[in-house]
């Protein structure tokens, strides 16, 4: 591997010399005084096109004179062009070659040819062929794109419904989006940020009918974008491209629905009726965006049920004319958003878990049932200003704030056994039946039981900001940059807790506990960075030196009060605390401290660009200081707990582009994370007597290394897309839990520790996505596969634990507990689509294998497999749509009753009316057979847990949707209606454009060419 990399590097470095020699030979033919320049863009998306091949021929005999390529902004310059007539030819892979003739005269010193447009070859097909051959996905440079017209969704659908149908894309129960194994952190609209990191503002509000295509890529940070130097802070984003005809008016969308749960559910009459209401107002123009979203509903599908409310405003504005040759750089860019999120939710869950004890005969099985209610309210604001007084200065300021108020109530019932209760007894519903066991049986197999409840309220106020100043001294890459960030958070956390414990092996330990905790926090942090970039080899390379300091101050003052007396229930319900509260204070459970960390990072990095590749290589030196100040416990000052560690790490980002549709990228990243304040407190917290926590002030920061390779390819002739991602991650000084477990009482004591060694915590994963539209047919095939391996280590001790001194006990020393988990999955679908019908057959299989060295002979394999189909039909009368999907989902290898088959059937129908089909009535029926359940398994070094979350899966909804879109012209309104019919029905003409600028560039659109 090292030899191959060395040969590749030597070969790459030889390329500039060969190119330079060739250019010297060509320049001998250029002896004039005129400079010829032009700007090449994608004719459909108007994005810059870098690396376009430009050739200059002399007329009339078309003698070759000179050749070059466009820069990252899509510009080219040819100097010393003599007087005469010339032909300019420009070409790019997948695009139609264009030619342009011009003359130069003696008086010319500069000949500006203007802007040239290029278009994809596929657009030259007839409209009928395009409709059938329209590929659902395409790769351009580092951008994976989805053509929205190739995916049919029910009328009136929002973005979330579309994303769930995209190949290689997963949406979890919390709305998080993963594309080919990478977590999406933000959603953009036409390259502009849309409600910051609140993805659900977009996924639950933006209607599908205004989106042309979806792009996903790794977006650079502000620092990397301005300086061109990779800082390792890129993030995966999903960029929504709005249809061109939707950018010239106001887009209104109103959606109101009412419904009712159907059949039996676990929530009784808590929610008798379901409702949803959504209003969106959008205006998307080239240099201006404005969005207003309002959403309220109680019909969300997921874990639990609840009432959710959203209200937000998002805006962005480019002010002034773009700088010459820097089309995307304006004198002033402003933007931001303010949003409110509120929710009231209720959740019911059941779990069955097993603890990996060090003695097989000392098994531990626990069943738990919990019921929780919570309310969350937050107001967030994020703003951005980018000011460029001239083309060499760039100033960015990003302030933000957050105000949140939350409350929660929970109750749980759990029981622990020393053997598997499903084997030792004939019980099937453990938590409903265990109390009816005989005393002899319960004392024989029972370990403990607990009934508990809690009541809490929290509040946080946060202000933060980022400031960046950059001075560009020349176009070759000489930059000076200063960056500063700050954050300040003040919060409170007050809670009541009640628990009643019974110990079946020793009833003398039975106890009841009432407590009140108050934990105010005051945290602040700031960082500063200074960086200099120096160009090398006429700007092909850059050498960067930077220094950064990060300072974090975390203050916490936790007070615990052990309450007793008949008034506890009243205090618990009303929060009306007694005047003499201090007399209940428990010094053993109370403490105050200030945690201080200072991280220094010195970075040296080298970047070099070649014709088809570029790479960044760097090294980081990172001294880190962590310590506790003003640590008071039991009324005493605790001594010095400071720690200093020295880290160094390499970084690498190498990308090779075979052409615009085929590329490979390799990255190596390192980052650090600090232990939490709670983990560093040297205190024993027995708020939950069955799960006692101890702090560890000796904890050190964790160093996490990540290596990743990504291969993307799109084959135009066969409309085939391949995406392969492989990653490897390990953690140095990984923070894990050391566990002491008492098999006689079921009490566990955990303490965070740092694990030594390079391979104590590591993982590897791979994701493969394959999509193909069969040319000249109405069929397409999608498949994705994933696999992962994870190794985790911690320490475990099985033995007695003292009742009043949990740190003491007998039973031997702790032994190493390691868990290996292998996961594999496959997802495949075949789709047939014509102008009025789309039918899909699909299947999914997931396998998980886990083994623990303390349970070597135990089978912990689980299987989840599903198969089914989906159909959507559109009839021309009233835009009548029918849709249905049915899936058989099966689980095996789980605990007890969690192994089952769920047959899930959903259906919907809609029709449109009013002028231009602006109004739609839609009926949705989810889980018609009322058979859906939600079960997950998690495995750690200390045990495995199977969890079932209850929700309202079966319900019916009736929606009224109104689109009141105001456009400037009648033609625009007619085009919008035609595209809406195509999206929900038989497809739409058109093709892919392209990705973003950068190393790669945009794609194509309608035919055309020549300067404008």
Distance linking N and C termini? 50 Å
Mean pLDDT: 83
Measured by DSSP, the beta-strand proportion falls in: over 45%
The value of Rg in angstroms is 32 Å
According to CATH, the homologous superfamily of the domain at 25-119 is Immunoglobulins
Describe the oligomeric state of these chains in a short phrase: single chain
Biggest β-sheet description: 35 strands, mixed
- Which stretches are poorly predicted, pLDDT < 50 over at least 5 residues? 1-28, 122-133, 982-1012
Tally of individual helices: 11
Q: What fold name stands as the CATH topology of the domain at 25-119?
A: Immunoglobulin-like
Helix content: under 10%
Alpha-beta classification: mainly beta
Report the CATH C-level class of the domain at 25-119.
Mainly Beta
Task: Kindly state the number of beta strands.
Answer: 50
Outline of this structure?
The protein has 1012 residues and is mainly beta. Helix content is 9%, strand content 57%. β23 and β24 form a beta hairpin.
How would you characterize the overall build of this protein?
Mean pLDDT is 83; it is low at 1-28, 122-133 and 982-1012. 9% of the residues lie in helices and 57% in strands. The protein is mainly beta and 1012 residues long. It has a 35-stranded mixed sheet that branches. Strands 8, 9, 10, 11, 12, 13, 14 and 15 form an eight-stranded mixed sheet that branches. The protein has a domain at 25-119: Immunoglobulin-like (Sandwich). The chain has eleven helices and 50 strands. The relative contact order is 0.13. A hairpin with a 5-residue loop joins β33 and β34 (691-694).
């Amino acid at each position: 591997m090292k030899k191959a990399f060395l040969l590749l590097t030597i070969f790459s470095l030889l390329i500039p010399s060969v190119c330079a020699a060739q250019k010297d030979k060509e320049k001998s033919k250029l002896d004039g005084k005129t400079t010829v320049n032009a700007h090449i863009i994608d004719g459909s998306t108007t994005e810059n096109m870098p690396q376009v091949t430009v050739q200059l021929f002399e007329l009339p005999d078309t003698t070759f004179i000179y050749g070059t390529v466009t820069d990252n902004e899509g510009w080219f310059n040819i100097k010393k062009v003599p007087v005469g007539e010339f032909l300019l030819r420009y070409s790019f892979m997948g695009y139609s070659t264009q030619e342009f003739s011009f003359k130069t005269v003696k008086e010319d010193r500069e000949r500006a040819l203007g802007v040239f447009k290029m278009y994809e070859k596929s657009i030259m097909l007839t409209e009928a062929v395009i409709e059938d051959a329209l590929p659902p996905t395409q790769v351009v440079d580092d951008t994976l794109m989805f053509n929205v017209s190739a995916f049919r969704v029910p009328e009136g659908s929002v973005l979330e419904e579309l994303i769930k149908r995209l190949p290689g894309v997963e949406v979890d129960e919390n709305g998080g989006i993963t594309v080919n194994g990478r977590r999406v952190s933000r959603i953009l609209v036409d390259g502009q940020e849309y409600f910051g990191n609140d993805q659900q503002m977009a996924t639950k509000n933006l209607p599908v009918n205004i989106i042309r295509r979806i792009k996903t890529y790794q977006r650079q940070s502000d620092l990397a974008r301005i300086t061109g130097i990779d800082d390792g802070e890129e993030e995966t984003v999903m960029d929504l491209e709005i249809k061109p005809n939707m950018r010239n008016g106001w887009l209104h969308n109103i959606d109101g629905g009412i419904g009712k749960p159907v059949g039996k559910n676990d929530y009784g009459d808590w929610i008798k009726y379901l409702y949803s209401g959504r209003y969106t107002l959008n205006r998307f123009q080239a240099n201006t965006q404005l969005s207003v979203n309002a959403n309220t509903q109680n019909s969300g599908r997921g874990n639990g049920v609840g009432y959710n409310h959203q209200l937000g405003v998002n805006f962005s504005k480019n002010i002034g004319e773009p700088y010459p040759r820097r089309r995307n750089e304006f004198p002033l860019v402003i933007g931001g958003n303010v949003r409110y999120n509120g929710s009231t939710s209720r959740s019911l869950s059941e779990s069955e878990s097993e603890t990996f004890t060090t003695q097989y005969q000392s098994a531990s099985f626990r069943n738990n049932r919990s019921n929780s209610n919570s309310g969350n309210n937050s107001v967030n604001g994020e703003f951005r200003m980018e000011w460029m007084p001239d083309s060499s200065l760039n100033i960015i300021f990003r302030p933000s704030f957050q105000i949140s108020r939350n409350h929660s109530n929970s109750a749980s019932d759990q029981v622990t056994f020393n053997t598997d209760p499903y084997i030792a007894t004939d019980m099937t519903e453990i938590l409903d039946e265990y109390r009816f066991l005989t005393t002899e049986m319960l004392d024989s197999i029972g370990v403990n039981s607990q009934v508990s409840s809690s009541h809490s309220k929290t509040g946080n106020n946060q202000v933060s900001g980022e400031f960046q100043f950059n001075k560009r001294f020349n176009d070759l890459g000489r930059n000076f940059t200063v960056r500063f960030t700050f954050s300040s958070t003040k919060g409170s956390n007050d809670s009541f807790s009640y628990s009643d414990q019974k110990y079946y092996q020793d009833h003398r330990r039975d106890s009841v506990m009432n407590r009140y905790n108050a934990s105010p926090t005051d945290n602040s942090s700031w960082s500063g960075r200074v960086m200099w970039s120096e160009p090398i080899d006429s700007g092909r390379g850059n050498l960067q030196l930077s220094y950064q300091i990060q300072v974090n101050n975390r203050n916490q003052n936790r007070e615990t009060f052990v309450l007793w007396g008949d008034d506890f229930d009243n205090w618990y319900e009303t929060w009306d605390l007694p005047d003499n509260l201090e007399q209940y204070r428990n010094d053993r459970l109370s403490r105050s401290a200030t945690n201080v960390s200072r991280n220094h990072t010195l970075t040296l990095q080298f970047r070099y660009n070649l014709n088809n590749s570029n790479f960044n290589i760097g090294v980081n030196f990172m001294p880190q200081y962590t310590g506790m100040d003003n640590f008071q416990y039991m009324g005493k000052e605790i001594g010095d707990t400071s720690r200093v560690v020295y880290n160094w790490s390499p970084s690498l980002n190498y990308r090779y582009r075979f052409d615009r549709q085929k590329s490979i990228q390799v990255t190596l990243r390192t980052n650090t994370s600090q232990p939490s304040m709670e983990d560093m407190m040297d205190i024993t917290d027995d708020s939950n007597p069955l799960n006692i926590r101890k702090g560890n002030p000796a904890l050190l920061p964790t160093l996490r290394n990540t290596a990743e390779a990504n291969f993307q390819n799109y084959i135009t002739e066969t409309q085939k897309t391949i995406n392969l991602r492989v990653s490897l991650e390990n953690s140095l000084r990984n923070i894990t839990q050391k566990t002491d477990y008492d098999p006689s009482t079921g009490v566990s004591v955990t303490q965070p520790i740092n694990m030594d060694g390079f391979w104590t915590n590591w993982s590897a994963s791979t994701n493969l996505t394959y999509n193909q539209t069969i040319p000249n047919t109405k069929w397409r095939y999608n498949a994705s596969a994933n696999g992962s391996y994870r190794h985790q280590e911690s320490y475990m001790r099985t033995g007695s634990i003292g009742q009043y001194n949990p740190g003491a006990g007998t039973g031997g020393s702790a032994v190493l507990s390691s868990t290996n988990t292998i996961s594999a999955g496959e997802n495949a679908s075949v789709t047939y689509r014509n102008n009025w019908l789309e039918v899909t057959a699909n299947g999914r299989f997931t396998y998980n294998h886990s083994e623990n060295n303390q349970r070597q002979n135990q089978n912990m394999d689980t299987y989840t497999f599903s198969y089914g189909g989906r159909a959507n039909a559109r009839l021309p009368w009233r835009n009548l749509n029918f849709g249905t999907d049915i899936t058989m989902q099966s689980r095996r290898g789980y605990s007890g009753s969690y192994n089952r088959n769920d047959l899930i059937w959903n259906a919907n129908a809609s029709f449109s009316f009013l002028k231009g089909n602006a109004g739609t009535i839609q009926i949705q029926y989810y889980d018609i057979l009322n058979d859906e359940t939600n079960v997950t398994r998690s495995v750690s070094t200390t045990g495995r847990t199977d969890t079932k979350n209850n929700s309202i899966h079966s319900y019916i909804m009736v929606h009224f949707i109104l689109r009141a879109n105001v456009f400037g012209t009648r033609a625009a309104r007619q085009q919008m209606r035609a595209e809406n019919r195509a999206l929900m029905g038989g497809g739409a003409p058109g093709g892919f454009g392209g990705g973003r600028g950068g190393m790669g560039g945009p794609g194509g659109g309608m035919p055309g060419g020549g300067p404008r």
